[in-house]
Amino acid sequence: MRKIEQIPALRFLSKSRQIYKDPLPFHRENFGKYGNTFKISPKPGLTIHFTCDEKITQHILQKNQKNFNKSTLQTEDLGKYIGHGLLTENGEKWRANRKLIQPAFYKKSLVSLMGTMDEVIQEEFNKIKADEVIDVYDVFNDLAFKVVARSLFDLGDIDDLEGKISRLQFITEKAQRMLIKELRIPWMKWYFDREWLSGENSIPYSLDLLKEARDILRNIINNRRSSDKEPSDLLDMLLHSTYEDGTHMEDDQLIDEILVLFIAGHETTANALSFAAQLLAQNPETIVKASKEIGRLDKEDLMTGLMAMPYIKQCVDETLRMYPPAYVTDRVALEADSCEDIEIKKDSIWLISFYEMHRRKDLWEEPEAFNPDRFAPGKAKEYRDFYFPFGAGPRMCVGNNFAVFEMILVIARMLERFEITPVHKDIDYHPLITLRPRNADLVFKKKSGAMGESRI
After folding, report:
1. Are 227 and 269 in contact (CB under 8 A)?
2. Other C-beta atoms lying within 10 Å of the C-beta of residue 318
3. How far apart are CA 374 and CA 396, in angstroms?
4. What angle do CA 88, 335, 9 make, to 5 degrees?
5. Phi and psi at residue 392, in whole multiples of 5°?
6. Which one, 30, 68, 245, 447, has the greatest CB density within 10 A?
């Protein structure tokens, strides 16, 4: 078996401040030095294996996925902040809830959501101030959150919807920053957990905020139950669906699932759209190609129109290659295992870097270049063994179809109404739980004769 190189503890600790701010350069440096797999021991008794090896990834996520669970970093630490839903559960509980929720995200189930999704997109684009520098993350963050709220949960009849959405966004942002501190500087957890500590640096403060978020969602559920309306949305489906034994999902579990869908369902999409807009603006030739497809939306129903825009889909695929929102994931081995010449010990933790895998020079031609043509029809199959923007295997993101259709529609409507110009030469990022853009500044100029506003 091949020996996996371990980074000296002192070297890791000496760079802890840098890693806390941005771990990706540290990952790249060590993948370059030690190969596609290395390990670190951030504290006594804890060893983490880092890999961007496509064969190990396939083995862990697909071929022998039953032998690997998500680690306590996700099930306990992340679960503490976003609930114990699909994203943070293992075993039979995860399988039962996945089986219950999955049908809502089939393509045929999404057809009825397209109109509402389009309305939200147009409303948000109407708010854009032309000819000014704007951070598009703010635009797409609001847009994506409202798409989730109105397309999946049809919350139009909820009092003060805007206020509730804004509060949920604020809470999830604060909670995520606290979680990042816990994960990246674990030796300081004793300090963050002090009851006397107040404000953003306090775990108790963050948990109080999350209790407020759960209360907001509980009120939404109770409001739906007391309403005489029965819209065909995910919330209605979850309220009426039953497990195999005939029981319904309990309210606390329902809140967990909704909280996960709110957070994961909007933030990853907002991130990807922000990166996509910047990449398109910096590569105007791609805008020329994409713009040739946007008229198809008005000639067909929305879903058919989206399916008839392959180049915009390629732009989405290429964006997700370069800046996958879920840029890492982890697993822990339930039993001893092996993959080719790598020994996988029982209880060992494996962190998979999709970001680095998607940029390996031996797998991708000019990986740092934005080239949507690499995903042209017939070519995508060349990358299926090392392209995982939504994960892989049974735990692939349940909302991947929803996210892709939303991104295609947003890009099409954006290019239909605006010319976009970059402000910065380089694209910056902020790796939190997801890979978020930083300073995603663009200038929007309204196209003459744009038809978007007349649709509202």
Report:
1. no
2. 22
3. 22
4. 75
5. -160, 160
6. 68
Nearest CA to 190 out of 174, 175, 201, 177 is that of 201
CA distances, 453 to each of 273, 392, 411, 449 (Å): 21, 39, 16, 10
* pTM of the shown model: 0.89
Tens-place pLDDT, residues 65-81 = 999 999 887 888 778 77
**What is the secondary structure of 311-366 as a DSSP string?**
HHHHHHHHHHHHS-SS-EEEEEESS-EEETTEEE-TT-EEEEEHHHHTT-TTTSSS
- Which sequence spans correspond to the domains of the chain? 52-154+231-455
Residue ranges of alpha helices (H) inside 35-160 are 54-58, 72, 79-82, 91-101, 107-110, 114-126, 136-147
The residue whose two tokens read 């000819």 is 131
Please say whether the beta carbons of 117 and 273 come within 8 A: no
Tokens of 12: 């890791």
- Identify the bridge partners of residue 371 per DSSP, sorted by sequence position: none
Residues 6 or more apart whose Cβ sits within 8 Å of residue 451: 416, 417
Mean per-residue pLDDT of the chain: 87
Token duo for residue 82: 């976003």
- CATH for 52-154+231-455, options being 3.60.21.10, 1.10.630.10, 1.10.240.10, 2.60.200.20: 1.10.630.10
pLDDT confidence tier of residue 217, bands split at 50, 70 and 90: confident
Give the least confident one: 5-14, 106-115, 200-209, 352-361. 200-209
- Residue 159's nearest CA partner among 87, 238, 227 is 227
Residue 353's closest CA among 324, 375, 373, 315?
324
